[in-house]
Amino acid sequence: MNAPIVPIPDAILASLPLADPSWRPILLDGLHQLAAADPGYLPALAADHYLPTENRLFAAFSVPLHAVCYVLVGEGPYPRAASATGVCFMDGAVGELWSDTGLSKPVNRATSLRNFMKMLLVADGQLDAAATSGAALAPVAAKARSGESISTLAQLQDNLQGEGFLLLNAALVFRPHVPPPVEARAWQPFLRTVLAALAASGAQLVLWGKIAEQLKNVPEAQALGQLSAEHPYNLSFINHAGMQGLFGPMRLLRPRAGKNAG
Asked: What's the predicted TM-score (pTM) here?
């Protein structure tokens, strides 16, 4: 896509340093594509209050371009400042994953994360798909806390990114007065630029929810493998065969040799 050069607000450019250097020219091109499609969008965003804060707009792009094997796309950032990290699905308010009786209270409050965790446990054979709540989780948590599992969400993010996951959202920002589908439409030219950069990589596009699935038919997505599922806030996600087949062999809840310490 060719587009005229449109100035990008400094407040938006200030978020580029958190991205790996391999991504920065691509992200800048993506911003120009977005600005060409909607010249008023980025200036209005820069003058507004949005999540994530602390210049974490492009935090997901810490994974180098050459290391990306999967592009996981969710809806948008968590609508809470403590939770929105700029990395899809990684709730900054969650530390420990486990409690004495099952999943930790912060995980249980984060519905999508809770269902993702349960899906991983079912896929790993640690939890019966017919009994994923209450007392069924107590023995799983006991084993996990004995050292058989990672213990924090930061370690889960490390494991996902170690498998080559670029953890994006269809809308890179959240604002309470802008509907997420509207925000996502504005960011689509940017995401198309990201997907175009991965066209020859053999990466797989993993789309969670209807907003993310709007990317299925863009031309740049056709060069990538695709796998879709309902958003993880749906209980049915726990038993999604496609997600179990993708994530199960990765054993994401298991510690990595030489990593996940502390």
From this structure: 0.93
